[in-house]
Each structure stands twice: as structure tokens, then as C-alpha cells.
Amino acid sequence: MPRVAFTLRLHAGMVDAYVARHDPVWPEMLAEIAAAGRRDYSLFLDRTRSEVFGYYETDDDEAARAYLASSPVAARWEASMSPFFVDLGGRADRVAPLIEIFNLHDQLADLDAGTEHGSTPS
User: Fold this and answer.
1) Which terminus of the chain is less hemmed in, N or C, by CB atoms within 10 Å?
2) What's the predicted TM-score (pTM) here?
């Protein structure tokens, strides 16, 4: 199951309004996110840097992105959110994901299965 993480930079003077926009998110947008197959979706705010860290899980991120790209509800949401972001060059939902380099659950599962990938430093 792919885990997807991303960051977004907010205009400093718009942080409070961005937070307010998510309390609550439009019910129809919540339904579209779920219908796209995204789950365990969270956003975290670093107020000192005006940055948002996002995380979600999905079975097929490409399909989820395609679903949302074709959704009129998602298009309206993204258009309403675009003024909050710095240097996006497009919709926030098309930002490049971060590369996962460590996952505790996966590495513990590998140890339990006897398929350790790394070596212990001497």
C-alpha cells in the first residue's frame, strides 16, 4: 500500500485562513477524497515556516490522482485553495510527493521475516 507525503508552502499572512478553511472541509470534497481511494489523510502545519506536511495512504496513487483531476468538486476546491500557496505553478493536488526513506513498520516486518536489508554498524 503506497504511503504518500508532500509539503506545501503557504503565504505567511494566510496561515490562519488556511487553517480555518479546513475546519471543516466541504463535505462533498471529503466524499471525493474518500471515493478517490485516499485514506488516513492528515495535514500538519509548521507555523514558524508557513509549511504544511501532508500524508495519506492509498492502494493506487495514480488512479486517485486521476479521479480527483476529473472531479468538478476537486477542481472547485483546488481553485479556492490556490491563493494560499507559494510557488505551486498549478494545483496543490499535483505537487510532487516526497520520497519515503524509512518506515518503522516495514523494517520491523522485514526483521520478523528474516529479510533484513541493511547492516548493523560495527
Assistant:
1) C
2) 0.84
